Amino acid sequence: MRDDPRLPSTPGFWRSPLRGPWFTSVLGLVLLVGITVLFVTGLVSYAAYNPDLSPVNDKTPDKGLLGFYLFAWPTHPHWLYRLNQGVHVTLGITLIPVLLAKLWSVVPRLFTLPPARSLAHALERISLLLLVGGGLFEFVTGVLNVQLDYVFPGSFYPLHFYGAWVFFAAFVAHACLKLPAALRALRHLREEPGGGHLRDEPGSDLVSPRPAAPTVSRRGALWFVGGGSLLLFVTTVGQSLGGPLRRTALLAPHGGRDPGSGPNGFQINKTAAYAGISASETSAEAWRLVVTGRTGTVRLSRTDLLQLPLHSSALPIACVEGWSTSDQWWRGVRLRDLAALVGYDRDDPPDVFVESLQRHGAFRRAALRANQVADPRSLLALFVNGEELSPDHGHPARVIVPAAPGVLNTKWVARLTFGDL
């Protein structure tokens, strides 16, 4: 039965002539570079939330030593988070065909018997299982978060964060084991006369002992995989670049044309209706901004805020899902000027805790570091592109901070608490 070609554990079961060390090695080297960039940009994205600043910013509170690399997120350049997250999401989607092709190329090894021939072989098989399972988990959860507002059970942040560490550990172990063989396979690249197909190292467990007739060369298969990746890239990247290319972002949840016209006609994440914001509580008569700090508490109406010095900043909004707006022209009161109202030096303000009227959804509260408060471009915005904020963009007031993730640019702000968090 072990030699029965009808069983997937038998080499003769897998008959595609495309499988072989060279084909697998090319895909593996592409993933080696791509997944390393994905992992680094993912870690950087998590650091942008300043998770060690306040529990409300930290969506993975039990990360322990895995947070060793965290650093205070800068505000320069103002497009930093937009670039980082755009690369992370766009590259992740672009690599899907490469990942699937790589898994297809090595699927015979998943059925190899016996499961382990030695301790070294057992470790390799375990790393392979973690690599395959972790890779599928990370890509699936990432795509669900981008495309479907995340329908996977549980919280996206800890699942994706811990899954990334498990996957990358297996990835590094597997790469260390296989990199010499991959480089050797590429060095031995040779063309067979007349067929345009590639000859592999003899004895490879990826080469079928009874291959079917070829219908495409391995190079042709690589072109097919590359074409799929290019198609996904073109239909995704516009969500980050903006402008006319946004129309090509067919696979992006905020792709296509701007959702409206006029000064407020640019992308939003959550609407006022979704957040449970009513017009009565944001009216000029009802709404007050509560600012608390060293010298006490002040309550400011929108009219009061308009009497303070107003400043302008050209800043984008960039979201964890990878979409972003182009730079919008915001106008409002500097956060550091509001800190000065409650007893702090505007050139050396403290951290601030921001609370929203929002009733539904995550990040109803958020914390900003002192360097974000001190940046002269950080505003409590009252206007955008020359017009009052619309309800969906945070009327009567919202925070806008350079280089910060979109969810930290709190909308429908009700309270600012300056000082130790």
Automatic annotation (TrEMBL):
Give the residue spans that cross the bilayer. 21-49, 87-107, 128-147, 159-177, 220-241
Q: Does the keyword Transit peptide apply?
A: no
Per its UniProt record, what SUPFAM superfamilies does this chain match?
Answer: Oxidoreductase molybdopterin-binding domain (SSF56524)
Q: Where is the Oxidoreductase molybdopterin-binding domain?
A: 282-418
Which InterPro entries is this protein grouped with? Answer: Mopterin_OxRdtase_euk, OxRdtase_Mopterin-bd_dom, OxRdtase_Mopterin-bd_sf
Q: Which GO terms describe its molecular function?
A: oxidoreductase activity
Q: Which UniProt keywords apply?
A: Membrane, Transmembrane, Transmembrane helix
Query: Could you confirm whether the keyword Mitochondrion appears in this record?
Result: no
By what name is this protein known? Oxidoreductase molybdopterin-binding domain-containing protein
